[in-house]
Amino acid sequence: MPQTPDPQTSRLDAQFAFLNEADRLKSVLRATTLCDGSRRENSGEHSWHLALYAMVLADQAPPDVSIDRVIRMLILHDLVEIDVGDVPIHSANGAAHASLETQAAEQRAADRIFGLLPADLAHSFRALWDEFEAAETPDAVFAKSLDRVQPVLANLLSGGGTWTTYSVTWDQLESRVGNKIARGAPRIWDWVKAQVRPFFGG
């Protein structure tokens, strides 16, 4: 007579399948380098660094933001790059990052990767990822702002980074990045702008 599967064992099978798959994020290289310019960072490092950004810069968040939820979003936000890879915001003159094709590929990746989890976790993690992508709630808006800040500082400290690679102008940086940072963290953007503007001759 066949044995009935142990629900707890099946749950752990799914949880570890997801965790093992998430390890692949460490192999996804981003266009952005480390701050010292020594090598390109990977998406796992980027996600960790953003979670730390949220902890350190929590006092810059609006009062209605839950930093715990922001951290959870930031840890999950780039898992889709396991399938899609990094799509730099300045590539193809900024069009590639916002293309419908890229967005559809990321949705398929989210279906697959979060679908590895037990149903309750799959639902809650996917909901956080969707919330981050939509960038409409206070938590998601602040999380998106931090996601834009970190590469800016890496580029500045590494001598230009992807700004040089993609011939980015100040106006492009402000429209693609600055406006999004200012939306969720205006004081952070004021500080960052003061550091970055001289690089562009301002």
List keywords for this structure.
2 strands; hydrolase; metal-binding; globular; mainly alpha; YfbR/HDDC2; 11 helices; metal ion binding; 202 residues; 5'-deoxynucleotidase activity; Hypothetical protein af1432; two-stranded antiparallel ribbon; 4% strand
Q: What structural category characterises the helix and strand content?
A: mainly alpha
Order of helical and strand elements: HEEHHHHHHHHHH
Mind telling me the CATH superfamily name? Answer: Hypothetical protein af1432
Mean pLDDT: 94
Low-pLDDT residue intervals, each spanning 5 or more residues? none
Strand content: under 5%
Helix content: 55-70%
The CATH topology corresponds to Hypothetical protein af1432
- List how many beta strands DSSP finds: 2
Measured distance between first and last alpha carbons: 77 Å
Major sheet characteristics: 2 strands, antiparallel
CATH top level assignment: Mainly Alpha
Rg result: 18 Å
Query: What is the helix tally?
Result: 11
Number of domains: 1
